[in-house]
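Narrative of activities, Objective 1.

The group set out to show that a structural description can be obtained from nothing but a protein's sequence at a throughput compatible with the screening campaign. Below is one input-output pair from the validation batch, recorded exactly as produced.
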Amino acid sequence: MAELSRYGWEQAMDRLQAAIELERSTVQLVVDADGGAEGVLAQQDAVQVLDVLVARTVEEKAKGMLGRDFSDCDAMLFIEPVETHTSWHTVGMTEPILLALFDAYGEPVEVAELEPGVADFHAERPFKFALELPVSSKALLEGRRLVLP
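Output recorded for this entry:
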């Protein structure tokens, strides 16, 4: 029965992947004016611009980075209609990801490294925006808030 369920899940994800074309955008990770990051950053390091795929709909969020990698984008941005405690999963993914959660004002809520196969991750506090990034991007997040265009 488990194999049938897995097969059904893979078939559904294949159909979903074929049907979803995601919006592209950019976001900024900005060092807070109070110097949020450790040490003194050079002016050009104060803002990091990320090329993101945007997931707004339930279908886009369900698909997320499944079947994709970060070769054509820096991150995936998930936008919730209101602040939420929505759970996260990495079932079906092959690589670990970094999940960065932000409130409605772009202030950091939580950063978690999720291994493949995590069935149910819950944020400690509500969030409105989530970024899925490669684990190697962790240093980009330190002391930064999210700014949307």
